[in-house]
Amino acid sequence: MGNFSTIKRRDFIGTTATAAAGLTIVPSHVVAGLGHKAPSDKLNIAGVGIGGMGFSNLRRMESENIVALCDVDWDHSKRCFEHFPKARKFWDWRKMYDEMGKSIDAVLVATADHTHAIIAAHAMTLNKHVYVQKPLTHSVYESRLLTKLAEKYKVATSMGNQGASGEGVRQIQEWLWNNEVGEVTKVEAFTDRPLWPQGLAAPKTGMWPPETMNWDLFLGPAKFRPYHRMYTPWTFRGWWDFGTGALGDMACHILHPVFMGLKLGYPTKVQGVSTLLMTDSPPDSEMVQLVFPARPKEKGIKVNFPEVQVNWMDGGMRPLKPSDWPEGRDMNVSGGGVIFHGTKDKLICGCYGEKPWLLSGRDPKVPQSIPRITTSHEQDWIRACKESPENRTETASPFSEAGPFNEMVVMGVLAVRLQDLNKELHWDGLNMEFTNIRDNEEFKFCIDDGMEIIEGHPRFNKVWSDPINAKSFSRELIKHTYRNGWSLPDMPQ
Question: Which residue range or ranges hold the Gfo/Idh/MocA-like oxidoreductase N-terminal domain (predicted)?
Fold first, then answer.
């Protein structure tokens, strides 16, 4: 393996997948029998999507061998390539897996949202440990798939919601479970995002991509559209085909203590409302309401978990302050905030579960019952990678939890995109389908608002799509149809 011949590596049993038609990887068989590494041994880590957050993650993994780097935009990734000069460089993660499968122990995925699942899923079928940036996936089905693949292959996994490793999330869980605020029946949460443009019509004309970018590989499983600089690199979050808007960007941070502290599962009801909803771009601001049924009380927990309503806001909106809110105190901490409305008190925290406090002013003295993480989120995942499945202490955000949690997050996207059905949607989480969308229901999207200023007055000549069948559209949102040449592994039974 050239530069890597002297690097310590796990002795993988089996071979890597071979490329099928085109460049699609279809593993010929599963690598099996992984053992564990001593903490002093180094993992061989590959990074996919390394120009932004991926570079930041990799720098926190420098205790290990960074052996391969992959990105579709080599100009945006230049700093990372220069920082890790010994790593092999790739445009296509499929080629990287094919050529270096035996040399890689673990994979970081920090690409645009729409390619998280396909890169991580194939890595897991090759028995690679995976760290995937948030949101975990672009769709409900993809989240379910990664959850089940992690269970099947018993690899170490983590979603990149780094606040999960912080003190606040653990403290909130302990306060809630010790009945410090009573039964929680409503939660309000918000973020100050987006920071990138949203609510846009798609560009009417395309552009030639830069020579340093492979646009076809960026699109990956998404349907083809001509390149435009509005789509990437950071602005991908503001386009439905590639991102999930402010909700997907920040709810995986802000709602994590809600999901964990209240032992949430699948919601049963959901609805969304927003500013003007465009065909291609998330709205400027939105509100989502998810209803979760009562959950059974677990051993050692002193509080009941009744039906709870979780409300989300973004784009500048935030909850109204309770009447006894301390004057002058900002609700926004590090990009957002949460209010847990309990029958005894209200618990408030910021983004990542930061700085939790009770509205009553009490300072609960609750014994610590949840182990603390003293390293970084990334290093805790590395620790888990080196442990055998039988003796592994799970990470702070393993796919067994991050998968169902991410389903909750992208469910909010579904609610917003289906809002013009003008009703509360009923969700069957186990079967991943809406139960009250009729076969013949239709709605339209706004393609262009057609705004003009005439003699100082705004005029709108909105352009609408043809009628869209709601049931077919919802199924496509739940489980995407991938572009020809791109495919996911099968869902484990």
Answer: 44-160
